[in-house]
Design a protein that fits this description.
heterodimer; A: 195 residues; mainly beta; OB fold (Dihydrolipoamide Acetyltransferase, E2P); 5-stranded mixed β-barrel; 4-stranded mixed β-sheet; 16 strands; 0% helix; B: 244 residues; alpha+beta; Ribosomal Protein S5, domain 2; 5-stranded mixed β-sheet; 4-stranded antiparallel β-sheet; 4 helices; 9 strands; globular; RNA-binding (chain A); exosome (chain A); nucleus (chain A)
């Protein structure tokens, strides 16, 4: 699995009968060609044909794709939706920010019509969400937090600007003033919590 | 008519090159750290700087977004000090807009835009010193910048400007030859597959000479591609040793 040789865009790597297409390559007339300048990587996956891909030293800009879990920061809220800036796709930070929208009916899975946006998100919150659509001409990426593991992960309290501690799926408490505030809180997996 | 001979009897041009000889090409990739990709290329005395940003979210007019691929936004400009007389209007004039459009068409043919729906790739090229073959040098510099940015492409895009004089094709014209009344043709080629991305000519040429001229242009482009290939491989080697 160690990287073998250098290749440049347009290099013919092999025939499509020998390998399966990975990333950084394209198919033309039955042959696989490289589309990036980097190292050729051939991975063997069981009895299937090896997967051939071209990797670079630095990662290419990743675009949020449908179904990806993204980390975003809320910029403004409205009674109908919340506007966010997408900061991370999975665990890769984005160089440029992308804009997203979380609609009122996508905030949680149950009682969708009874959602109140100001009791779910506030500007400045860090939210884990999933991409449901790339959006059309008018809108940005559409995101959803309608799962237990999605929602607010970091929030700061109004009064003391301290980081709040989650108490339940809909409340967070400030450690200094002990006031409770409403948010749609994400249930963090036990393995991510520090001991 | 007194004047300089574009092609002497012994077959030498104004700058001492032979008819099929290219100018010296020197290039560097990754000159700017803040851009996603950048390259500096010199072809003889013509110097160009290319910078690539992207792929990123579409800025401004969201109605331009394409649902299945990325849009390529090119801007060509010349530095005010790039020509013999100080340029009054570096961008926005008709020639720059036309060049930007040609660059856009050229790169739309080579970049695999289907991988980035609803996003935008920006290519900015600036000519720092203009001595003929502006379009070709821009295309070559932009190819290196796009490769530096890690944006997938079908193949290199190499371009060359050729001219026809005295029944001979001259490869890689300089400014004196271009303005000396040579019918010049600019050609952008994907060298591996031999596919032509763009042909541009606005002079008069007899139909019988067209095939020869295009052949000469394709040979010259393949020569340029060899040099660009070396530059890319060397840059990759340097990058990898740093990582090790």
């Amino acid at each position: 699995m160690s990287p073998t040789r250098l290749c440049v865009p347009g290099d013919k790597l092999c025939s499509v009968e020998d390998c399966i297409l990975g990333t950084g390559v394209y198919l033309r007339h039955g042959y696989i060609y490289s589309s990036l300048a980097g190292y050729v990587l051939k991975k063997n996956e069981g009895e299937q044909l090896p997967v051939i891909s071209v990797v670079r030293e630095t990662e290419v800009q990743l675009l949020p794709d449908v179904g990806a879990i993204v980390t975003c920061k809320v910029t403004s809220i409205n009674s109908r939706f919340a506007k966010v800036h997408i900061l991370y796709v999975g665990s890769t930070p984005l160089k440029d920010l992308f804009r997203g929208t979380i609609r009122k009916e996508d905030v949680r899975a149950t009682e969708k019509d009874k959602v109140e946006m100001h009791r779910s998100f506030r500007p400045g919150d860090i939210v884990l969400a999933k991409v449901i659509s790339l959006g059309d001409v008018q809108s940005n990426y559409l995101l959803t937090t309608a799962e237990n593991e999605l929602g607010v992960v970091v929030a700061h309290s109004d009064a003391a600007r301290a980081q709040m501690v989650p108490i339940s799926w809909c409340e967070m408490q400030c450690p200094q003033t002990h006031t409770k505030e409403f948010r749609k809180v994400a249930r963090v997996q036990p393995e991510y919590l520090e001991a | 008519m007194a004047g300089l001979e574009l092609l002497s009897d012994q077959g030498y041009r104004l700058d001492g090159r032979k008819a099929t000889e290219l100018r010296k090409v020197q290039a560097r990739m990754g000159v700017f750290a803040q851009a996603d990709g950048s390259a500096y290329l010199e072809q003889g005395n013509t110097k160009a700087l290319a910078v690539v940003y992207g792929p990123h979210e579409i800025r401004g007019a969201r109605s331009r977004a394409l649902h299945d691929r990325a849009i390529i936004n090119c801007q060509y400009s010349m530095a005010t000090f790039s020509t013999a007389e100080r340029k009054r209007r570096p961008h926005g004039d008709r020639k720059s807009t036309e060049m930007s459009l040609h660059l856009k068409q050229t790169f739309e043919a080579a970049v695999l835009t289907q991988l980035y729906p609803r996003s935008q790739i920006d290519i900015y090229v600036k000519i720092l010193q203009s001595d003929g073959g502006n379009y070709s040098v821009c295309v070559n510099a932009a190819t290196l910048a796009v490769i530096d940015a890690g944006i997938p492409m079908r193949d290199y895009v190499c371009a060359c400007t050729v001219g026809f004089v005295d029944e001979t094709s001259l490869a890689d014209l300089c400014y004196a030859e271009e303005s000396g009344g040579v019918s010049s043709l600019a050609l952008a080629l994907l060298p591996r597959g031999g596919q032509i991305a763009l042909v541009q000519m606005d002079a008069r040429l007899h139909q019988d000479h067209l095939d020869t001229l295009i052949e000469a242009a394709m040979t010259a482009c393949k020569g340029v591609s060899k040099v660009l290939d070396q530059v890319v491989r060397q840059h990759l080697q340097e990058g990898s040793t740093l990582r090790e």
